[in-house]
Design a protein that fits this description.
single chain; 64 residues; mainly beta; three-stranded antiparallel sheet; extended
């Protein structure tokens, strides 16, 4: 069995992960296109018709 990883310290992720195992074959995961710039703020907007419900602080089974 062989394993190969290419890790990006800046991004904190593996850019390539490859596993060769005679039982399962070869699995390769790669990051092909990535941008380190800030994402557009509108990507985090809540879609129309959705509501944000904050359940923090509620205890399960407390009857709140």
């Amino acid at each position: 069995m062989e394993r190969e990883y290419w890790f990006s310290q800046q991004l904190g992720i593996n850019l390539l992960s490859k596993r060769i195992d005679p039982r399962f074959g070869t699995q390769t995961f790669t990051i092909n296109e990535i941008s380190i710039s800030e994402p557009e703020a509108q990507l985090f907007d809540i879609p129309k018709g959705f509501t944000v419900v904050d359940h923090r602080g509620k205890v399960a089974g407390a009857g709140h």
